[in-house]
Design goal:
This is Amidohydrolase. This protein is an alpha/beta fold and 418 residues long. It has eleven helices and 16 strands. It folds into two domains: 4-209 and 326-417, 3-Layer(aba) Sandwich (Aminopeptidase); 211-324, 2-Layer Sandwich (Alpha-Beta Plaits), CATH 3.30.70.
Length: 418
């Protein structure tokens, strides 16, 4: 077992990590468009002499969403291979187990509101979920583990993944062989968060992230003049009744001991205040942990929407797209991460992490191999770094970069040596 004191982030590496994170933050790329990021990653692996391949994975939606639902939603998925994923291999001194370490690379369609020197240079695109931090940390991990490769047995597989924010880049990379040659025995990932500070991580076994589905309801009525509503079928009113009725699914049809969320974040209808529109569209998301609750909510949304609309002389068509599955942290791998982190950071800085209702496509990896995803603290209250991921003012305290590197290196080495 390599001593923990051998896992060091030198001042030079720390400076490089900060510079790299800022470069990636200033140059964000949306899902399936991460060409510059992939080029940067592959270039650094090449400099380190790390075996790697590019063009891995792509759009994974056709692999976990039904063709009929995609067509109904007007989605035409791209190819599942030939994309921007990068896979690196660090082979130890002798064959052994293989551990996969993953970082996602894509950004979000959000206009950044932070006034910082490293603000996004691309209008309407921002690393608001911390994937710039994830990618930077895994590059730092690669550098340290590559320097220790003559001192451990087994293989470390580096998974730089595109398209986490919706298109399912993880399952596309699985389809493209990321878990094969050599076969992966376990996987570890991290995700930044403002629930704790640099120097702390949060992790627990069991439920980690929820299944994340998308629903669209199109209501069709009869348009007309706002001054003569009796001659029309008002889709705005129908949509409002459907919206309220759907809230009773969780409150009255799902056990209080189960976790579920039904949220509609968008309603589109009409263009003038004196015209009753012909159509109204509701768009939302469903989050669940169990298959039974997921199936029930999918069925009841369509039934309630259709029933309410029919009772009000309208029609409702429901399109339901199943997204990422729920993710569970494997107890054995989680214990390895916890014990390694306790040795690196101190047991008092290894916190319990409550299950999240957010979705995460690392769940596709967790369905196939024992997996642990831990939370990395990036909060800095004094600097105003308190906004959660997906917020236009999300940011990260860069002191967390070295913490993430050391924790992931220690966890990987402990797994390989266990």
């Amino acid at each position: 077992m390599i001593p923990i004191d051998r896992i060091q982030v030198t001042p030079e590496l720390d400076a490089w990590l900060r510079e790299t994170r800022r470069y990636l933050h200033m140059n964000p790329e949306l899902s399936l468009q991460e060409t510059n990021t992939a080029r940067f990653v592959a270039g650094h692996l090449r400099e380190l002499g790390i075996e790697h391949r590019t063009g891995v994975g792509g759009d994974g939606r056709s692999l976990f969403m039904s063709r009929e639902a995609l067509a109904a939603a007007g989605v035409e998925p791209g190819p599942t291979t030939g994309g921007t994923g990068v896979v690196g291999l660090i082979r130890g001194r002798r064959p052994g187990k293989t551990v996969l370490l993953r970082a996602d690379m894509d950004a979000l369609p959000i206009e950044e509101e932070n006034d910082v020197p490293y603000r996004s240079t691309r209008p309407g695109v921002m690393h608001a979920c911390g994937h710039d931090v994830h990618t930077t940390i895994l590059l730092g991990v690669a550098e340290i583990l590559n320097g220790l490769r003559d001192e451990f047995d087994g293989t470390v597989k580096l998974m730089f993944q595109p398209a986490e924010e919706g298109p399912g880049g993880a399952i596309a990379m699985i389809h493209d062989g990321v878990l094969d040659d050599p076969p992966v025995d376990a996987a570890i990932a991290l995700h930044v968060g403002v629930d704790c500070e640099p120097g702390q991580i949060a992790v627990s076994p069991g439920p980690a992230t929820a299944a994340a589905d998308t629903v669209k309801i199109e209501v069709t009525g009869r348009g007309g003049h706002a001054a003569a509503p009796h001659n029309a079928v008002d889709t705005v009113v129908v949509a409002a009744h459907i919206l309220i009725a759907l809230q009773t699914i969780v409150s009255r049809e799902v056990s209080p001991l189960e976790s579920a969320v039904v949220t509609f974040g968008a309603i589109h209808s009409g263009s003038a205040n004196n015209v009753i529109p012909q159509t109204a569209v509701l768009e939302g998301t469903v989050r669940t942990y169990t298959a039974a609750v997921r199936d029930h909510i999918e069925r009841r949304i369509a039934e309630i929407a259709s029933g309410v609309a029919s009772a009000m002389r309208a029609e409702a068509k429901t399109t339901y797209l199943r997204g990422y599955p729920p993710m569970y942290n494997d107890p054995a791998v989680t214990e390895i991460v916890r014990s390694a982190a306790a040795e690196v950071l101190g047991a008092e800085n290894v916190l319990d992490r409550a299950p999240l209702m957010a979705g995460e496509d690392m769940a596709f990896i967790a369905e196939r191999v024992p997996t642990c995803m831990f939370g990395l603290g990036v909060r800095n209250t004094e600097r105003g770094i308190v906004y959660p991921p997906h917020h236009p003012r999300f940011d990260a305290d860069e002191d967390a970069l070295a913490v993430g590197v050391k924790t992931m290196v220690a966890a990987a080495l402990r797994y390989l040596g266990s």
